[in-house]
């Protein structure tokens, strides 16, 4: 049995892919009625700091993984003491902390935005002075989808940034004037075998992913360089599983890594219908020691997230013979929440209004 820490839609689609390969999954989640619980053989609902529940969970599985990175490190370490956890603790620790992540990437020889660690208002002011305007202040921990960060465009924004940090440690990054946002989704086995999907072009609105397009539109040399960078990162982490490397593409032809996601990723949902092997199956293959699958793309692909009440438009999408609709079963729509997605492959893709 495969253990999945976290019960969201990523865990749901991971469990579905595992079942296709003949595996049963045990989900550990701190929330009732989670999307992953609907499709898993077994579910434990308990706080992530319930060590006895984590022990019981670990004893029931042969290998464990996680569907999001904001899990207390101590909880994952507890599971790892009894059963292999893939990706490993090191990758999770790096991705959880923005300063650790930036430091790791810099030391690995990866191009990133210039950054300065800050721990109080005075350090924040000094960092802004050194990096110049505009720049971005981010909390070190628990940031995602634009949460825990703010843009500093003028000196008067420093006060707002200090309030956002609320006395917690953070980092300030120099602003990157990019042409487009892309991601590399790469899988690595314990034996060091690596396979990368074609680059994705990601379109965000208010820091939330709205659409992913494949092909990315980047020139071949830039796409090749992105895969080289992602491979270097995966090898440096001795990574096992699926890794997502989010990057900025520059007009100069360069690439700057923005952040890492040590897991399956929203920008890879297109692979379910758009590639021979989905990112979810590829992750299961990697963590279970199976050969990696083919990443060939079936045709031009567009994936669109359904946020909040957009999920109510599912009947409309179902009337489109080219649409592949995914409803995560989250119940009542919440504004801005990812409720599902739609993918179109190798077809005339309709315009979808927000």
UniProtKB/TrEMBL annotation:
ATP binds at residues 98, 138, 143-149, 173-176, 181, 204, 258-259. Pathway: Purine metabolism; IMP biosynthesis via de novo pathway; 5-amino-1-(5-phospho-D-ribosyl)imidazole-4-carboxylate from 5-amino-1-(5-phospho-D-ribosyl)imidazole (N5-CAIR route): step 1/2. The lineage of its organism: Bacteria, Pseudomonadati, Pseudomonadota, Alphaproteobacteria, Kordiimonadales. This is N5-carboxyaminoimidazole ribonucleotide synthase. It catalyses: 5-amino-1-(5-phospho-beta-D-ribosyl)imidazole + hydrogencarbonate + ATP = 5-carboxyamino-1-(5-phospho-D-ribosyl)imidazole + ADP + phosphate + 2 H(+). It comes from Eilatimonas milleporae. One of its GO terms (biological process) is 'de novo' IMP biosynthetic process. GO terms for molecular function: 5-(carboxyamino)imidazole ribonucleotide synthase activity; ATP binding; metal ion binding; phosphoribosylaminoimidazole carboxylase activity. Its EC number is 6.3.4.18. Belongs to the PurK/PurT family.
